[in-house]
Design brief:
Elements (H helix, E strand, L loop, with lengths): L3 E4 L6 E4 L6 E6 L1 H4 L9 H16 L3 E6 L7 H6 L4 H25 L4 E5 L8 E2 L2 H9 L3 E5 L9 H11 L4 E6 L4 E2 L11 E2 L1 E3 H6 L7 H9 L4 E5 L5 H6 L6 E4 L3
The chain binds adenosine-5'-triphosphate and the ligand O=c1ccn([C@@H]2O[C@H](COP(=O)(O)O)[C@@H](O)[C@H]2O)c(=O)[nH]1.
Subunit structure: Homohexamer.
Keywords: ATP-binding, Cytoplasm, Kinase, Nucleotide-binding, Pyrimidine biosynthesis, Transferase
GO molecular function: ATP binding; UMP kinase activity
């Protein structure tokens, strides 16, 4: 695939262009990616690398908001598989995303960026409650807004939270920074013969059950024609590169 699509500010169509021009984007940071080389938890070097990447994009004039996962600390589904009440486990998972958000906020501030953490579950002594119009205002002022605690509801994931917030913030695209350099025909970490796609439609991802993101997130993006860009966030500068449409990534859009 050689051509790239560009989402117009009106959000109602695509143009064929060589270079994307994004005004506002949401980056979903995988919790697992924050582990770096560690077995669990957060690798401070990885926080610094991700923060430097985000700072580069912000300084290029793009408004950035973030949703952080919690899979490096706790996943409700895994706990439920061992007998824990699912909803209780999911609330613990959402709290895990708040820990990651605070770590990332600190990393971003060390890069000299202005930031706000907004939580979907109220915890007013450490972060602002999520208020949509306030979040938009923060971004207009050049602040990086980190949306924590997922959607605030059990039985969801931070991928769905990312699609939800990206739509609410009227972002031009949702970037999913993960451990693999795009979407493959099968999980590349389990199947070495899986092949990578440059471009897919939402329906391709749903019908072929390409499990890089959950179906609820893909459906939400599809309903609102929100492009999704999946890329590997382990190399320094990776986020800036995909925002400039460089390097390897898979883009999910409405039609090829
Ligand atoms: N078809 C596929 N193409 C690419 N990756 C896939 C595919 N199927 C499954 N995966 C897996 O999906 C993973 C993406 O999940 P990732 O860990 O980034 O998300 P997450 O669960 O949202 O993050 P976290 O819970 O750690 O915050 C990849 O690491 C990859 O191994
Ligand atoms: O809206 C949400 C978002 C997340 N959760 C719980 O948090 C963990 C961690 O999120 P990941 O997306 O897996 O990184 C998730 O496993 C859920 O248990 C939630 O309940 N609701």
């Amino acid at each position: 695939m050689t051509s790239k699509t560009h989402r117009n500010p009106s959000r109602d169509g695509y143009m064929t262009e060589k270079q994307e021009s994004y005004k506002r984007v949401l980056l979903k940071v995988s919790g697992e990616a924050l582990m770096g080389k560690a077995a669990s938890g957060v690798d401070p070097d990885m926080i610094d690398m991700v923060a430097a990447d985000i700072a580069e994009v912000v300084r290029s004039g793009v408004q950035v908001c973030l949703v952080v996962g919690g899979g490096n600390i706790f996943r409700g589904l895994s706990a439920a598989a061992k007998g824990m009440d699912r909803a209780q486990g999911d609330y613990a998972g959402m709290l895990a995303t708040v820990i990651n958000a605070l770590m990332l906020q600190n990393g971003l501030e060390r890069q000299g960026l202005e930031t706000r953490v907004m939580t979907a579950i109220q915890m007013a002594s450490i972060a602002e409650p999520y208020i949509r119009r306030r979040a938009v205002r923060h971004m207009e002022k050049g602040r990086v807004v980190i949306f924590a605690a997922g959607t605030g509801n059990p039985f969801f994931t931070t991928d769905t939270a990312a699609a939800l917030r990206a739509n609410e913030m009227e972002c031009d695209a949702l970037f999913k920074g993960t451990q693999v350099d795009g979407i493959y025909s099968d999980d590349p970490r389990r199947n070495p013969d899986a092949t990578r796609y440059d471009r897919l439609t939402y329906m391709d991802v749903l019908s072929q059950q390409l499990n890089v993101m959950d179906a609820a997130a893909i459906s939400l993006a599809r309903e609102n024609k929100l492009p999704i860009v999946v890329f590997n966030m382990h190399a320094p500068g990776a986020f800036g590169a995909v925002v400039r449409s460089e390097g390897l990534f898979t883009k999910v859009v409405e039609a090829n």
